[in-house]
Amino acid sequence: MKIKTKLCIAAAVLVSAGLLLFVIGMSLLGWDFKRLDISKYTAKSFIVENADDVKSVEVSMSSFPLDIVSGDAFKLDYYEAAGCDIFVLIDDGTLKIVEKYKYQPFDTGFFNIGRGDHRYVLTVPHATDVSVVGVNCDISVKDMRFGSLRIDSTNVDLTLDNVEITGDIYLKAQNANVCLTDVVTTSIEAFATNLDVEIYGCELGEALADGTNADVTVNDSQIGEATFRATNLNVEANRASIGKCSASGTNADIELNTFTVESLFVKGGNLDAYIEIAGIRSEYSVITKGNDLPPVQIGSTEKTITLEGGNNSVQLKFV
Questions:
Q1: Residue range 67-87: average pLDDT?
Q2: Residue 126 predicted with pLDDT over 50
Q3: Rounded to an integer, what is the distance from CA 103 to the centroid of its chain?
Q4: Are 100 and 109 in contact (CB under 8 A)?
Q5: Measured distance CA(243)–CA(225) in Å, rounded
Q6: Chain CA centroid to CA 66, Å
Q7: How many CA atoms lie within 13 A of 269 on its CB side?
Q8: First to last CA, the chain
Q9: pLDDT per residue as tens digits for the range 255-312
Q10: Mean pLDDT throughout 18-28?
């Protein structure tokens, strides 16, 4: 038997044995992967005695998720764990929260899945500007009002529910999942290579989603002006009202149902679109550039629909 064949057989035996041990081990743990995290978590709190001492909040997170809630005082409930150092202080009116994380598999285990069950909770008593940076940022905000929100991270999961933001939202990441429900804000800008944005029941002055691969869902929301652009773009809107809307991509898949709009611009190198306008057809001017697009028409108002594409499959109807 050749040496190469013997090595292949030996490797296959080792892999099979490893898989068997893994299955046996996980069976004994009830397939609860969080039990692989052997870190010890110690609950801590930091309370600001005078809320007026804080004008803004800066957070630098590496591994723990963060909830932001409304309350009577500035407070951080957090956890200390092996492999990370936590610093909380007030510097010139800014509450600074820093988590410095070092991967130490032989001390804490190869998995830190348990961190998801040990969320930091930041309590904010009044409208405050919040900025967050980090590698992995899992941020949830619910039932509150605050200033602006700025996030710059590699991976971002952002959930806002019943939130009023007096300023704006700015997000920059490599991979971002954004879910807004019942949010009121003047502006949101989201930039990411892989971007997933969901907007439900919101009132937004302006919205921008920009990525290489972008999926955008807008339901039952009102937006003054919206721009969606990506190399690979998927947009779905249901019962949404957008004053001025632009959607463009090299590969664009657009579905607009019962859509209210004053000015609509849709462009794609490869364009697949179903557009159902809640309005009167005769009021809209339809401007097209490309083959196999709906017929051009002159409308009775300043409302416009502009369609541009290379390879097109487009339906336009009014309801």
A1: 88
A2: yes
A3: 25
A4: no
A5: 6
A6: 14
A7: 8
A8: 75
A9: 999 999 999 999 999 999 999 999 999 999 999 999 999 999 999 999 999 999 999 9
A10: 49
Q: Residue 284, class by beta-carbon neighbours within 10 Å (0-12 exposed, 13-18 middle, 19+ buried)?
A: buried
| 3-state DSSP of the chain | CCHHHHHHHHHHHHHHHHHHHHHHHHHHCCCCHHHHCCCCEEEEEEECCCHHHCCEEEEEECCCCEEEEECCCCEEEEEEECCEEEEEEEECCEEEEEEEECCCHHHHCCCCHHHHHCCEEEEECCCCEEEEEEEEEEEEEEEEEECCEEEEEEEEEEEEEEEEEEEEEEEEEEEEEEEEEEEEEEEEEEEEEEEEEEEECCEEEEEEEEEEEEEEEEECCEEEEEEEEEEEEEEEEECCEEEEEEEEEEEEEEEEEEEEEEEEEEEEEEEEEEEEECCCHHHEEEEEECCCCCCCECCCCCEEEEEEEEEEEEEEEEC
Q: What is the pLDDT of residue 159?
A: 97
How far is residue 114's CA from residue 35's CA, in Å, rounded to a whole number?
A: 8
Question: CB of 197 within 8 A of CB of 209?
Answer: yes
CA atoms of 251 and 254, how far apart (whole Å): 10
Model pTM score:
0.82
Locate tokens 């038997």: which residue? 1
Nearest alpha-carbon partner for 72 in 160, 138, 129, 144: 144
